[in-house]
Amino acid sequence: MKTILMLLIFLFSFLTLPNINSQTRDAIAENKSASTDSTIEKLKVLEAKLDDKFYTRVPNKDFENIIDIKISKQVNDKFTFWFSIIGIVLTFLGGISVFAAKKYVSDEVTKRVIGEIENARAKLKSEIDNELSNLKRFQDESKKFIYSVELERIKSEQKINPRAENVTELNKLLLKSNEISDDDLVPYIIDELVRIYYYGRQVKEIDELIKNYEKYPLLSPTWVNAALCFIDEYEAYGSKQKFEQSISFLDKALSITPGYGEAQGLKLLTFVINHDKAISDDDRMKISKEILNLFNEINTSLPLCAYETMGRIRRDKSSALFSKYVDKLYTISPIQMSEMETKANQYAVENKLVKIN
Fold first, then answer.
1. 114: alpha, beta or left, given left = phi > 0 and alpha = psi -120 to 50?
2. CB 209 within 8 A of CB 193
């Protein structure tokens, strides 16, 4: 700063020197052009005034100080002016900077606040959803317990006193259980309904029930009871569609419980009915092959499978519908029937069960 100040003083001094020399040259020129007489007269007057009382003597040093002060004042005035201008500019720019900084800070704060709000909202929503989920789970579990008790009550009443009101109550219970997607209870309700429909020979109701609730893990006995209705229909009317549906239902039972003897026994008898209804020898040959394959599957499986299959066939021996087909099964495959019966009785002896006669 001192260097800049000295430079400014030097420049100012340099610029003012030409003005002082010019004034001196003008005065000299005027004196030269004056007449001699006039000059003498003036000199006399000046001489008369050259008395200490008419002026104040100023030493050279003081004179230089006065000049320095005057120059310094002018330089300082200039410096002050430009400093003020610069100050105004800086103030303006500073104001803009402050405004920009304020806006930046405001934006950042707003962004952070919004972020915190969103995080808090998300956390709160998660907590609420979790609580609602827990509440719904508790409600559903409570309903499942109530519905299961209701199912057992209806089943007990149905055994003692079968009536149409029980079917109505079961259907209402099924709808309520379906609302909470109870995979445990719905299959048992359907199983009870199919059993009732079977004894009432309500094939249409069974078909609709299966189609509407097949998405649930239905029980093996459900598929067997449903198949029984269609086997009856097939035996009575010879509908190929009923035959295929019967086999399909029995296969689903076996896919749930492999080697399930109830399904295996009914499947054998269904093939025998199909064999009995066949028109051509070729058809009968194909059906006989299906029966043989099924026997091989049973006799190479666990002894329990043979025991359950023989149990089903023995029960159907006393059935008005199936009795003649059991006899025909012994006629078509006597060796396989004997082998299966032997295996079943061995299992009965080993496990102290009733032998198959």
1. alpha
2. yes
- Using CA atoms of 29, 34, 39, 45 in order, give the dihedral in degrees to the nearest 10: -90
Total residues found in the chain within this entry: 357
Tally of CB atoms within 10 A around 353:
13
H-state helical runs in the chain: 2-33, 36-49, 60-160, 164-179, 185-199, 203-213, 220-237, 240-256, 261-277, 281-299, 303-317, 323-332, 334-350
C-alpha separations of 160 from 115, 154, 155, 164 in Å: 67, 10, 9, 13
Q: Chain centroid to CA 223: how far?
A: 37
CB 322 within 8 A of CB 270: no
pTM of the model: 0.65
Q: Which residues of the chain have pLDDT under 50?
A: 1-29, 31-34, 36, 43, 46-47, 49-52, 54-55, 58, 63, 75
Phi/psi for 135 (5° steps) reads -65, -45
- Which tokens hold the place of 27? 């005065």
Residue 341: per-residue pLDDT: 95
